[in-house]
From TrEMBL:
A matching Pfam family: F420_oxidored
Binding locations of NADP(+): I6, G7, A8, G9, N10, M11
Domain Pyrroline-5-carboxylate reductase catalytic N-terminal as annotated: residue spans: 2-98
Presence of keyword NADP: yes
Subcellular location: Cytoplasm
Species of origin: Vagococcus elongatus
Catalytic activity: L-proline + NADP(+) = (S)-1-pyrroline-5-carboxylate + NADPH + 2 H(+); L-proline + NAD(+) = (S)-1-pyrroline-5-carboxylate + NADH + 2 H(+)
Assigned protein family: Belongs to the pyrroline-5-carboxylate reductase family.
One GO CC term on file: cytoplasm
GO molecular function terms noted in the UniProt entry: pyrroline-5-carboxylate reductase activity
Residues the entry annotates as binding NADPH: N55
Protein name: Pyrroline-5-carboxylate reductase
Gene name, Swiss-Prot/TrEMBL: proC
Stored Gene3D superfamilies: NAD(P)-binding Rossmann-like Domain (3.40.50.720), ProC C-terminal domain-like (1.10.3730.10)
Length: 268
């Protein structure tokens, strides 16, 4: 099975490294392209894989094509490869936000086998949580193949496409939101006199320990909030302050804004 990556930036590079590290794929099975043949060669040499001098040639050689370009570049790429995909059995994996299956098929034809995958940045350490939505023409074996591929890189969930945008917000985008939370706590400690590096190290340990505890003990958020909040103590003062300042509504707004943008992009 040959896997072709159109676009080899942050996400594709992490996927390629993860697939090779996990031994799911050998370097000989991977081909990539970037925006120019020179850049493709340099990246391929660095990763120990092959490159194609153009996207059409890459598609001709691949069984699975992973589209790893930014959404703004995707229409040109889809137009470029459409004739190679039409009437083929090739599987096209799109990791782009804002391109639903219908929109991708409007370029590649209604019969094209499209799977939308939304990984997240944690794929760089094979800790992605990836959402998968398939067009309705996949066989069970084909679905299994794509799922197995992304299982090498973390946890996967198969989703109805209507839920894909919500998944994108809480899984694809949330590393940025989580980093904002960590930054906020860190700088609040700096304001109170701790050096930045020390404050960030403490915050990261506290956050990662909290995640492990919640998973290990299968605690709900409110179980933990109640356990930490001593009656008449310090935590409940902070919890009340966050509630008063609209912490939860802010997150609702952020997720809604993310979903709205994805839906608008799919309509463009
Ligand atoms: N970043 C994230 O956290 C996540 C991103 N995504 C999605 O992943 C996709 C890629 O994002 P990311 O990896 O961050 O982006 P990058 O900008 O890091 O990578 C994009 C790649 O596309 C290449 N490229 C541009 N034009 C072409 C072309 N015509 N033919 C072939 N390759 C081309 C670029 O090459 P060059 O360097 O030569 O310009 C570059 O290697 C996006 O669609 C995004 O929505 C999904 C989940 C999470
Ligand atoms: O910001 C974006 O559009 C992409 C999709 C998920 C994470 N990054």
């Amino acid at each position: 099975m040959q896997i072709g990556f159109i676009g080899a930036g942050n996400m594709s590079t992490a996927i390629i490294k993860g697939l090779i590290d996990s031994r799911f794929t050998s370097p000989e099975q991977v081909t990539l392209t970037k925006s120019t043949a020179e850049r493709s060669k340099a990246q391929a040499d660095q990763l120990g894989v092959a490159f194609s001098s153009n996207n059409t040639e890459l598609v001709q050689q691949a069984d699975i094509i992973i589209l790893g370009v930014k959404p703004q570049k995707l229409p040109d790429v889809l137009n470029e490869i459409a004739s190679e995909i039409k009437d083929s059995k090739k599987i096209v994996v799109s990791i782009a936000a804002g391109f639903n299956i219908t929109k991708i098929q409007s370029f590649l034809g209604d019969e094209a086998k499209i799977v939308r995958v939304m990984p997240n940045m944690n794929i760089a350490i094979r800790r992605s949580v990836s959402g998968l939505s398939f067009s309705d023409n996949f066989s069970v074996e084909e679905k299994q193949l794509v799922s197995e591929l992304f299982e090498q890189l973390g946890v996967t969930y198969e989703l109805a496409e209507k839920d894909f945008v919500t998944f994108t917000a809480i899984a694809g985008c949330s590393p940025a939101f989580t980093a904002m939370y960590i930054d906020g706590l860190t700088r609040a400690a700096v304001k109170n006199g701790l050096p930045y590096e020390l404050a960030q190290a403490i915050t990261l340990e506290a956050v990662s320990g909290t995640l492990e505890l919640m998973k290990d003990k299968t605690l709900s958020s409110w179980d933990l909030i109640n356990q930490v909040s001593s009656p008449g103590g310090t935590t409940i003062e902070g919890v009340a302050s966050l509630e008063n300042d609209g912490f939860i509504p802010s997150l609702f707004h952020a997720v809604d804004a993310t979903i709205k943008k994805d839906q608008e992009m799919s309509k463009e």
